[in-house]
Amino acid sequence: PAEPLVLGIETSCDETGIGIVRGRTLLSNTIASSMDEHARFGGVVPEVAARAHLEAMQPAIEQAVAEAGIRLADVDAVAVTSGPGLAGALMVGVGAAKALAVSLEKPLYAVNHLVGHIAADLLADDSEPLEYPTVALLVSGGHTSLLLVRDLTSDVELLGETVDDAAGEAFDKVARILGLPYPGGPEIDRAAVGGDPDAIRFPRGLSRASDREKHRWDFSFSGLKTAVARWTEQREAEGEAIPMADVAASFREAVVDVLVTKALDACAEHGVPRLLLGGGVIANRRLREVALARAEAAGVTVRIPPLRLCTDNGAMIAALASELIQSGRRPSTLAFGADSTLPV
Ligand code: KG4
Ligand code: ZN
């Protein structure tokens, strides 16, 4: 059909996301997060996430169907994230999607989580069609990836990604070092209010001339995390107080600087005047501010989907499948499984 009714299932990390779209129209987007259960561990625990998906799945599907005002039997297709992500968590979504597609006798589409983040942009209310090519920067607790998108359904190239921690993970770990609760991103944002972003020059990972050849578009945040730990330990050893606002602002600036610099360098080098941002870390106000200001100076237009579509959700997975269906893509066979390292 021209505007397929698609139910999308997302379980790659700690959000059980069920979304329903008709073509590019968002009908419902139910998200059950197990974030609270991970808080006392300071990060997502895969086993806990998988179990939470199992418990949340059925009610989330029922809620999404009710909110969309459809009958489950009316869907034209079922879509699911098959990777990348946490293996056990992915398996729950893939199992549920297969069961649903078989029982409804509807086609099943296995899709890539990162490409799904890009498809989220199609669901924004005022959205004009996504123009190609575009560079996409996806930053969350689970990934930090830079992609060149020539066509959402057929030509997405991974330029680079983090070689260690994801950007959101760096926020979470540094928050822990500073004695702040999980999730660390919003906490560091709050702590940074009034701080001087240039107070401490923390390292920008993989930004040296010698990194250009092998890691031009890759990111690294574990050295930054260690630098913050060393800096605060040294202060404490000298019996001095930690200037929280300055440390938080300087750390955040190092993350934001390297993300925006590499994204805009990728735009320049590939002759692409468009940048799409996605992932939960986009909630960071400083990141949006710096990205918008520097992009404008570089003649690059920035697109940022609404935040509830930037964090992990099922609607973006349904939206991607809807595009694939309309481009004539054949459904997946039931032979596929969860693939924690699925390439784009
Ligand atoms: O996309 P997302 O909701 O899901 C996962 O990746 O699981 O992203 C969550 C991540 C967490 O690491 C959190 O600390 C980070 O996004 N985050 C932020 C902010 N809000 C959430 N990072 C920086 N600044 C924020 N304001
Ligand atoms: Zn994600």
Please, could you describe this protein's structure?
Helix content is 43%, strand content 19%. β9, α10 and β10 (301-303) form a beta-alpha-beta unit. α5 crosses α6 (184-191) and α5 (167-177) runs parallel beside α8 (222-237). By secondary structure, the protein is an alpha/beta fold. It has two domains: 5-123 and 309-326, ATPase, nucleotide binding domain (Nucleotidyltransferase, domain 5), CATH 3.30.420; 134-304, Nucleotidyltransferase, domain 5. The structure holds 5'-O-[(R)-(carboxyoxy)(hydroxy)phosphoryl]adenosine (KG4) and zinc ion. 5'-O-[(R)-(carboxyoxy)(hydroxy)phosphoryl]adenosine binds at residues 13-14, 140-142, 168-169, 171-172, 183-186, 189, 279-281, 283-284, 311-312. One of its GO terms (biological process) is tRNA threonylcarbamoyladenosine modification.
SSE order and pairing:
Layout: E1 5-10, E2 15-22, E3 25-33, H1 35-38, H2 46-68, E4 77-83, H3 87-104, E5 108-112, H4 113-119, E6 134-139, E7 144-151, E8 155-161, H5 167-177, H6 184-191, H7 212-215, H8 222-237, H9 244-269, E9 274-278, H10 285-298, E10 301-303, H11 307-310, H12 314-326
Parallel strand pairs: 1-4, 4-5, 6-9, 9-10
Antiparallel strand pairs: 1-2, 2-3, 6-7, 7-8
Helix pairs in contact: 2-3, 4-12, 5-6, 5-8, 8-9, 9-10
Domain Gcp-like: 26-318
Pfam family, one: TsaD
Keywords: Acyltransferase, Cytoplasm, Iron, Metal-binding, Transferase, tRNA processing
How would you concisely characterize the structure shown here?
This protein has 344 residues and is an alpha/beta fold. It has helices spanning 35-38, 46-68, 87-104, 113-119, 167-177, 184-191, 212-215, 222-237, 244-269, 285-298, 307-310, 314-326; strands spanning 5-10, 15-22, 25-33, 77-83, 108-112, 134-139, 144-151, 155-161, 274-278, 301-303.
